[in-house]
């Protein structure tokens, strides 16, 4: 039974569907199962390889009957991913970000150790160049998946990845045992990221990093001595000028 089918999601017999019948989902009327509403959101999805080594996607869909009761219905679709081949936008997006996540995870344990996974992400982008979907090509804009992987693999900005390594392995990972040493490692990490930023101010990958980490950095350095705060605030303001006011507040808080 496939998503978008005109059949009932419970018995798979022909049914009437009205996507606009309910603001919370699709209203279904089945002569065998009665009237119910399919939620607009999937409860959970899980991807796995079947016996033929084909990616399969299983999802639990919440169905609510008019009387207020609800049940979960399991259904499945095939989600094909073939390396260096564009099969669908969904498969490529999921593969791309999976490789990006793995790459940064490996980078956090050893300098530039995530390169094999980033190369795989580059392959996903290359295969999607002729796809009709947006987000894969350089000419669209400089804030999409093409530029994420370009920034990561461009050797001119390799200090960004070295900074990620310092930030995590020699910084965040040490907090439980030595907060002072941990902050020193994080300071070294953001200093390396600053070096990459100077190669190209406004680098997209650094903007994404600061979007994710700015609040964490403020929390980390709030208890630091003023000299240490001043040094890191100057770095943060240089690589994330849009949030300068937020970083300046660090200088007004007491350890």
Describe this structure in words.
By secondary structure, the protein is an alpha+beta fold. The chain has 2 domains: 16-78, no CATH class; 89-252, no CATH class. It is built from 8 helices and 5 strands. It has helices at 89-107, 115-127, 145-153, 158-169, 179-199, 204-221, 226-239, 244-248, and strands at 16-22, 25-30, 34-49, 55-65, 70-78. A 5-stranded antiparallel β-sheet has the order 1-2-3-4-5, with no helix packed on it. Helix 4 runs antiparallel to helix 5 and helix 5 packs parallel to helix 7. The longest helix has 21 residues, at 179-199. Mean pLDDT is 83; it is low at 72-76.
Give a short account of the largest sheet: 5 strands, antiparallel
- SS-based class: alpha+beta
Instruction: Give the SSE order as H and E letters.
Output: EEEEEHHHHHHHH
Number of helices: 8
Principal-axes geometry comes out as: extended
What is the radius of gyration computed over CA atoms, rounded to a whole number of angstroms?
A: 24 Å
């Amino acid at each position: 039974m496939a998503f978008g089918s005109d059949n009932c999601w419970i018995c798979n017999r022909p049914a009437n569907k009205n996507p606009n019948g309910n603001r919370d989902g699709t209203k279904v009327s089945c002569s065998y199962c009665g009237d119910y509403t399919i939620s607009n959101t999937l409860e959970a999805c899980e991807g796995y390889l079947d016996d033929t080594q084909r990616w399969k996607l299983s999802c639990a869909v919440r169905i609510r009957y008019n009387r207020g009761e609800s049940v979960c219905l399991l259904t499945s679709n095939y989600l094909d991913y073939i390396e260096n081949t564009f099969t669908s936008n969904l498969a490529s997006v999921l593969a791309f970000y999976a490789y990006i996540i793995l790459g940064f995870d490996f980078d956090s344990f050893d300098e530039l150790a995530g390169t094999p996974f980033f190369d795989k992400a580059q392959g996903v982008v290359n295969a999607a160049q002729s796809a009709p979907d947006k987000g894969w090509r350089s000419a669209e804009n400089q804030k999409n998946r093409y530029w994420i992987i370009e920034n990561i693999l461009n050797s001119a900005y390799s200090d960004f990845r070295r900074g990620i390594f310092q930030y995590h392995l020699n910084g965040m990972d040490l907090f439980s045992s030595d907060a002072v040493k941990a902050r020193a490692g994080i300071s070294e990490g953001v200093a390396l990221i600053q070096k990459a930023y100077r190669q190209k101010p406004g680098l997209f990958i650094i903007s994404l990093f600061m979007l994710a980490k700015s609040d964490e950095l403020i929390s980390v350095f709030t208890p630091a001595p003023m000299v240490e705060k001043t040094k890191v605030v100057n770095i943060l303001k240089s690589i994330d000028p849009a949030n300068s006011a937020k970083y300046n507040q660090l200088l007004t808080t007491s350890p």
